[in-house]
Design a protein that fits this description.
Length: 127
Amino acid sequence: QVQLVESGGGLVQAGGSLKLSCADSGNTFSRYGMGWFRQAPGKEREFVAGISWTAGSKVYTDSVKGRFTISRDNAKNTVYLQMNNLKPEDTAVYYCAADRLQFRNPATSQNYDYRYWGQGIQVTVSA
């Protein structure tokens, strides 16, 4: 069973960096593609980045391309989101999620493809 816990959020000034981590306490992490989503106040949850189970495929939403990097360490059952050059509009609760299917390739950006979700972590970027 997939159980996800995010860490690494917090408050940062515009232009700064944060690295989010999401750890899975189960033993099947390496079989699943992983994704990061975010939800700002008053807005719908949106896709941020996804990575396939092999890490050979990565996909990003346009607004974070060149600033955010998704990666994974299957030995540590952890997926990461390195966020650089943060902007106030990046302020949101960030969620990691695991694919509903095992061994999917390429990585998916569709909300409905993700079944398992973390509890979310706040990222606040001040101007």
